[in-house]
Design goal:
single chain, 48% strand, elongated
Length: 265
């Protein structure tokens, strides 16, 4: 690894010698991993007001960690290989369009939704997971018709863009093509949509863009439920993308899921 590199494919593996520190600046997150006397030292910090940052840089140096608070992981003396790889969130992410969206009966639409990733820190050979660090701090939200029925998710606000060209390029967010088909006889107002990112894989393009598979929600009745389909492989727009990480959860068969909320005001 070069001592200092502006790396679009920042998730490639690297070696860290004793007394060396690798620093990853990714969007609002700065993460540092240091090898010291048979231990990995890990620290991170976020610029919470810089969520739209496009910064991506990986630096290898001999600088010590700039903060006293860090985590220590005991490892073997020869465990100098490491990788910082992106993974998707560990809960579904509820996205709320900034403007009201209505899908008429019999119509369909595709949104391009970007969601922030986590950084999985792996070290040693074979690789062992030290920590999953979210690039952004997302707030918790409950998604369901009542406090007894539903699930705990993360909340995010989005423009729900219909054109991929309008989606800002941000290295710490993965883009999901979300197609919504309204086959019911009533209009579908979309106030919030639950995107099941733990069921999705993450793909990296040669240009550093992050993608998931495409997701289809098919609404057949006047309710907040929809059939879920995950298209296999990276979407067609993700030219040359390669698999980086698989889904956190594996569902052999997915039927109806609660996809929407706000249907009745």
């Amino acid at each position: 690894m070069n001592p200092r590199e502006n790396s679009e494919r920042w998730w490639t593996s690297f070696a860290v010698g004793g007394g060396q520190t690798v620093t990853l600046h990714l969007g609002p997150l700065s993460l540092r991993l240091r090898m010291s006397a048979g231990e990995w030292w890990l620290s991170w910090e976020r610029q919470e007001d810089d969520e739209d940052s496009t910064r991506v840089e990986r630096i290898l140096s001999t600088e010590p960690l700039p903060v006293e608070r860090y985590e220590r992981f005991v490892c073997g003396a020869g465990d100098h290989s490491a990788v910082l790889k992106p993974v998707l969130a560990d809960r579904s992410i509820v996205v709320k369009p900034r403007q009201p969206v209505f899908v008429l009966p019999g119509e369909e639409t595709t949104f391009y939704i970007s969601t922030p990733v986590w950084i999985r820190v792996e070290a040693g050979e074979p690789p062992r997971i030290l920590r999953d660090v979210p690039v952004m701090r997302l707030s918790d939200t409950w998604f369901g018709p009542s406090t007894r029925e539903g699930e705990l998710c993360y909340a995010a606000r989005t423009h729900a863009r219909s054109s991929l060209q309008e989606v800002p390029r941000r290295p710490h967010r993965a883009v999901t093509p979300l197609r919504i088909r309204n086959r019911a006889g009533t209009m579908l107002p979309i106030d919030r949509v639950s995107l099941p990112v733990p069921l999705l894989s993450l793909y990296g393009g040669g240009d550093g863009a992050l993608w998931t598979e495409g997701v289809d929600f098919i609404r057949a009745t006047d309710s907040d439920m929809a059939s879920l389909r995950v298209a296999p492989g990276p979407p067609a727009d993700a030219t040359g993308a390669q698999l980086l990480t698989g889904p956190r959860l594996h569902a052999e068969k997915v039927g109806l899921v609660r996809a929407f909320s706000g249907l009745f005001g």
